[in-house]
Known about the structure:
The complex is a heterodimer of chains A (111) and B (113).
Chain A: E1 4-7, E2 10-14, E3 19-25, E4 32-37, E5 44-49, E6 55-58, E7 61-65, E8 71-76, E9 85-91, E10 100-101, E11 105-110
Parallel strand pairs in A: 2-11
Antiparallel strand pairs in A: 1-3, 3-8, 4-5, 4-9, 6-7, 7-8, 9-10, 9-11
Chain B: E1 5-7, E2 10-13, E3 19-24, E4 31-37, E5 44-50, E6 53-56, E7 65-68, E8 75-79, E9 88-95, E10 103-104, E11 108-112
Parallel strand pairs in B: 2-11
Antiparallel strand pairs in B: 1-3, 3-8, 4-5, 4-9, 5-6, 7-8, 9-10, 9-11
Amino acid sequence: xxQLNQSPQSMFIQEGEDVSMNCTSSSIxxxxxxxxxxxxxxxxxxxxxxxxxxxxxxxxxxxxxxITRKDSFLNISASIPSDVGIYxxxxxxxxxxxxxxxxxxxxxxxx
Amino acid sequence: xxxxxxxxxxxIIEKRQSVAFWCNPISGHATLYWYxxxxxxxxxxxxxxxNNGVVDDSQLPKDRFSAERLKGVDSTLKIQPAKLEDSxxxxxxxxxxxxxxxxxxxxxxxxxx
Lengths: 111, 113
């Protein structure tokens, strides 16, 4: 089945550092969604992208819809302790309504 | 606006026992999903409802899993009998018809011993 590969798998960074993560697919996506999941909670939507090349920000978070439509990137600037969690990319492959989730990037912040 | 409600939050059972989870979606969201999330993985779709009808249950292990949404609002997911490998978080999500943005509940963490 469809797979979304996220990298890195995990990150350990110092508070205040910037973070970059990405998500790649073998298929074309029409929509890219970035979710964050904290321990004991369900995923919460951070950013939605709808057009190739689109760059969208939500506070310190910025996400981009790759030009090839097979990848997406998420950046977090000036990380703070509450950024800890697992970040998932997700999207419906073209021609399919179902959401496919990535493998996740676990972010740990060292005070 | 109230979010997706799920209960219970935690459940511990022994293998071969039965268990049921409940979900109340966001008001007005006709589309409801059940996902299984195994530790260290992303959510995997089990079943999708549109109102009270099943849209996709191709990934639901129908020999032991069942789900219903009789009145098109609340939904229940049942496992009977449970196996050790069913230990996971069961997430419910809902969205407006035709939209891709799904809103998730906090999930039910199931441990099968």
